[in-house]
Amino acid sequence: MRPLISFPRLAGLFGIIALVLFGNVQAADPVRVACLGDSITAGATVNSATQSYPAQLQKMLGDGFVVKNFGQGGASFWHGGNPHASQQLPGATAFDPQIAVVMFGINDTRSRDGATHWAHFSEFDKDAGAVLEALLALPAKPRVLLCLPTENVAGLPGMTDARKASVAERLPRLVEVRAKITALAEKYAKQGVTLVDLHTPTVNRNDLFNVDGVHLNVTGYRLLAETLCPVVKATATTLNR
Predict the structure, then answer these.
(1) CATH of the domain at 119
(2) Hey, is 123 helix, strand or coil?
(3) What separation in angstroms does the CA of 209 have from each of 44, 100, 152, 164, 216?
(4) Planar angle of CA 140, 142, 146, nearest 5 degrees
(5) How far is 118 from 115, CA to CA, in rounded Å?
């Protein structure tokens, strides 16, 4: 008796079934990562396109991620700053990230050369909270990595006396900023906000800084990317994709 279906025909049939069931399955789209922040995010003092921390983070994460840099020099959480964090929200909204890395606060300590940011520090919680809530409400429902601002250094060789005085004045203020950011991360933790400490890795590391004592060099920005990379990867595993 001849078999109803020969082996070659049976193999071909299984191949057709497999094509129907799995042929249209495609690799997941890259995870979208938005980086919002001030000049530290923008990549001041280096080639932003290749040496900023978002650019270096993209290289470390690879093709499974798309990292976009929305950072702007001088940006603060305070809504009266020019520029300020809320101005980065339209671009981030269009990008619709699944992960948002947020780092502001250094410019919120400013009070010289006509800046009045520190006089409005009582508005910090409200303004920072509004940015977080706007991000959390985006269609992709992103996880937010809220970062503690990096260290500032007041006594680097070659720093002018005026610059030393300015940075020294802002150091204790940054302690208050970091405390506020830590509290905000705790407040919004159940909504998808995670605190990332980018301060501790830069403490006692003068070799990471530009002579102005605030901005980082290529090595400093790479350290930020190295610190964030495993956090971003771990966060990506929690996404509903």
Answers:
(1) 3.40.50.1110
(2) helix
(3) 11, 25, 8, 14, 4
(4) 160
(5) 8
The helix/strand/coil state of 191 is: helix
Decide if 101 contacts 232 (C-beta within 8 A). yes
- Please report, rounded to a whole number, the percentage of residues in the chain having pLDDT higher than 90: 87
Q: Outline where the chain has alpha helix (H).
A: 7-22, 39-42, 48-51, 53-61, 89-95, 124-136, 161-187, 218-236
The total number of structural domains that make up the chain:
1
- The DSSP output letter for 156 is -
Residue 240 pLDDT class (50, 70, 90 cuts)? confident
Is residue 14 domain-resident?
no
The tokens 């992103």 sit on which residue? 142
Residue 230 CA to residue 166 CA, distance in Å, equals: 34
Query: How many Å apart are CA 176 and CA 82, to the nearest integer?
Result: 22
Helix (H, G, I), strand (E, B) or coil at 110: coil
Instruction: Write out the residue range of the structural domain in which residue 35 sits.
Output: 29-236
- Structure confidence at residue 234 as a pLDDT band (50, 70, 90): very high
pLDDT in tens, 39-97: 999 999 999 999 999 999 999 999 999 999 999 999 999 999 999 999 999 999 999 99
In angstroms, rounded to a whole number, what is the distance separating the alpha carbons of residues 67 and 33? 5
What value, to the nearest 5°, has the Cα angle with vertex 174 and ends 224 and 123?
110
Does 132 fall in a domain? yes
pLDDT over threshold 50, residue 24: no
Q: What is the pLDDT of residue 145?
A: 98
